[in-house]
Amino acid sequence: MNSQFLSTPRTAAIVGCPFSGGQPKAGVDEGPIRLVEAGLVDQLQEIGWAVTFDGHHQFEENNNLDDPPIGKLKNPRTVSRVTRSVADVVSRHAKAGVLPVTLGGNGYHIRAHPNACVVWVDAHADINTIETTVSGNIHGMPVSFLLGLGSKENEFNWIKPALKPERLVYIGLRDVEAGEKKILRENNIKAFSMHEVDKYGIGRVVEMALDHVNPNRDLPIHLSFDVDALDPSVAPSTGTPVRGGLTFREGHYICEAVHETGLLVALDLVEVNPSLSEAADVEKTVAVGCSLVRAALGIPESEDDGLRADLTPYFSGETLL
């Protein structure tokens, strides 16, 4: 399906962001590298996309700076520099009519489509402000920056509010801090927790989510998918796993349904951390990550016979057959 917002021939740009400074657990910077090494570029070419990938090197120079906290915020200068680098690269691709597929990073880059809506798939709301954050980890704050909530440190003055609350919807929440719940309520932000997924089913949840942020199905969609939205039995190699998450099929259905709108303009896949599990679990999580990207770009898992063979050992007893 061709998107009305993308140029032809349809082209995806892989933007690797091997960076771990937004949170305390080492190894998440290896996630983008492992996804590309698993053959993601070739897989997307096999389903009909032209693919550009310029390597991960453009962000590495920002990783090793001496960066003391500012107030509660950890690694603020480094996070700001890397985030700005990612945002600039992604925006350049999007303005050229190319679909950016960002591996790592965390969703700050929607400037090229100011009227876009955002479907945020995650176990966590990532909407803490400087005032509400307990940990000071900036990876738990990107949505508040996008919405322009809370006070700002000078290091992040370059981030301008780019999203309205009514253009944001969450799917898969199940580990939300008290301060974040208050923000969601006060800003009337629509969120479908795992309770709603269980109650209504994933098909109805996705329909209601899209009806809320994109009722006429005429706005570009930015899909941000944190693999910890999936149950740890499906994607174990991630930094903040929470039991009771989306199944393999539920996660893929979200991606497939967004693709079917023909409105996808940007995709993030974040929080694959190869350092936190045994080799088999790492391989399992990386394979799921690649499969989600394929689903979002147009190949339903149920029809993915040629590419899903490597997944069968992990899921044959659960969801594929």
Beta-strand content estimate: 5-15%
What's the helix count? 10
Shape: globular
Secondary structure tally: strands: 8
Given the helix and strand composition, which structural class is it?
A: alpha/beta
The helix content is 25-40%
Largest beta sheet, briefly? 8 strands, parallel
Order of helices and strands: EHHEHEEHEHEHHEHEHH
CA(first)-CA(last) distance:
26 Å
Characterization of the model:
Helices cover 33% and strands 13% of the residues. The chain contains ten helices and eight strands. Helix 5 links the parallel strand 5 and strand 6. Strands 2-1-3-8-7-4-5-6 form an eight-stranded parallel beta sheet, with helices on both faces. It has helices at residues 31-37, 40-46, 76-95, 142-147, 178-186, 194-200, 202-213, 248-261, 279-297, 312-315, and strands at 11-16, 50-53, 99-103, 117-121, 168-173, 190-193, 221-226, 264-270. The protein is globular. The two termini are 26 Å apart. It is of the alpha/beta class and 321 residues long.
